[in-house]
Design goal:
With 414 residues, the chain is mostly helical. The chain is 87% helix and 0% strand.
């Protein structure tokens, strides 16, 4: 069986370059933020983006995640994709209208005018990004690297340009939020044009397909929500216990450590469709390549993490600024957490393929619960290190339980 390793390598190389350029966005903007805004302002921006992560599975019902697997198993792909994007449109528009009615007409939220506008902006921002990410997953499955690159890089470029221009004119966190929203709006508008231009994708609702999609994706709503708790709940604990200024410092080091996700995400984007496609063709034969690839992948992200750890002091000194510097134990814990996250993201594809999305949701719930408990006890005692250590322990537990579940599946197949 020829599993087209060359195709995987070319896609991985392409996604690595694209994600490298895309990942430069927060790192290019970061020193502009740290030099023009206070740590308190950066903390507010972090709370804005964190809120969008929590709302995404609620508004989108994780429908776009179904594209990663069902795209390869449903015979009528064009009909399936039409139904997916129709559902996103209905959910997005409906959520935006409900947020407007809730904040202005019924005045459900006791907020001032600026905060009401921010609530609506967050909901609409989530809707825009559902369109963008759904389209990008589709292009990955189609191995259409050109369109993937155009959308991903044009959005990143717009974000950088708008942020630089507006932050040079106004020292206000609102301009950063405006830049995020504007780049997403223009990107989603262009995607809408591409989808309308492609006559094979139409406005369509099919009850059987919708039910199949929801059966697959509904457990992922809880999975994504709990996974966001694992990744971002510490922000709210830090803000409450230590203050928004400390949250700003934590946000900076978290973004710096996220460079490790470059390698993880780049490989995942090329690997996931490759994995799903070949597992559907020859599951038993492909597992040999799976296990061999995992060994090289694990070693690569370990070495990458070690390199980042040792150059971190230089990044603070010459790029971010000493005012935002934190203890090295904090980024050591975060980088180690990313290592175990990388192992988890590689192997969890097996549960997705087996359509064990309920198991995935349970895994996320356990790790999120552990994370909340640890944050509650450790942040007041250990400060920012408590948050980083809670993240590390949660990911170790998450990966360990995953390995136990996978061994169970392996024994059942024997």
């Amino acid at each position: 069986m020829n599993f087209k390793k060359k195709s995987l390598f070319l896609n991985f190389s392409g996604y690595t370059i694209i994600n490298l350029l895309n990942s430069l966005t927060p790192f290019i903007i970061l020193p502009i933020l740290t030099w023009n805004l206070s740590s308190n302002d950066i903390g507010v921006i972090d709370l804005f983006t964190t809120s969008t992560f929590f709302l995404t599975p609620i508004i989108g019902l994780c429908i776009i995640q179904s594209i990663s697997k069902l795209y390869f198993t449903i015979e009528n792909r064009k009909k399936y994709i039409s139904v997916v994007f129709t559902c996103i449109l209905i959910l997005g528009v409906g959520s935006t209208l409900l947020s407007i009615l809730g904040t202005y007409t019924f005045n459900i939220f006791d907020l001032n005018t600026d905060k009401k506008q921010l609530v609506i902006l967050i909901v609409f921002y989530v809707f825009l990004n559902l369109i963008i990410e759904g389209f990008l997953i589709l292009k990955r499955n189609e191995e259409n690297l050109k369109q993937f690159a155009i959308i991903r890089l044009s959005k990143a470029g717009l974000d950088i340009i708008l942020s630089i221009i507006f932050l040079s004119l106004y020292n206000n966190y609102n301009v950063r939020i405006f830049s995020l929203f504007s780049s997403s709006f223009l990107s989603a508008l262009f995607i809408g044009y591409l989808l309308l231009k492609d006559k094979s994708i139409t406005f369509l609702i099919d009850k059987k397909l919708v039910n199949k999609i929801l059966i697959y994706s509904s457990p992922l709503i809880l999975h994504t929500f709990f996974n966001n708790i694992l990744n971002y709940a510490d922000r709210y604990f830090i803000n409450d216990y230590l203050g928004t200024a400390q949250l700003g410092k934590y946000s900076v080091i978290y973004q710096l450590c996220m460079v490790m996700s470059l390698l993880i995400t780049s490989f995942s984007m090329a690997w996931t469709p490759y994995f799903m496609k070949n597992m559907a063709i020859d599951k038993k034969g492909f597992m040999i390549i799976f296990n061999k690839t995992f060994k090289y992948y694990s070693l690569s992200i370990l070495i990458f993490g070690i390199i980042i750890y040792f150059i971190m002091p230089l990044i603070y000194k010459f790029y971010v600024g000493e005012d935002y510097k934190v203890e090295n134990t904090i980024y050591l814990a975060l980088l180690s957490g990313y290592f175990f996250q990388g192992l988890y993201r590689f192997k969890v594809n097996q549960l997705f393929f087996e359509e064990k999305t309920g198991w995935i949701a349970s895994l996320s719930f356990i790790s999120a619960l552990i994370n909340i408990i640890l944050n509650f006890y450790l942040i007041p005692k250990w400060g920012l290190f408590g948050a980083a250590f809670a993240t590390l322990v949660s990911y170790i537990v998450l990966y360990t339980i995953l390995e136990i579940l996978l061994s169970k599946i392996l024994n059942e197949d024997l």
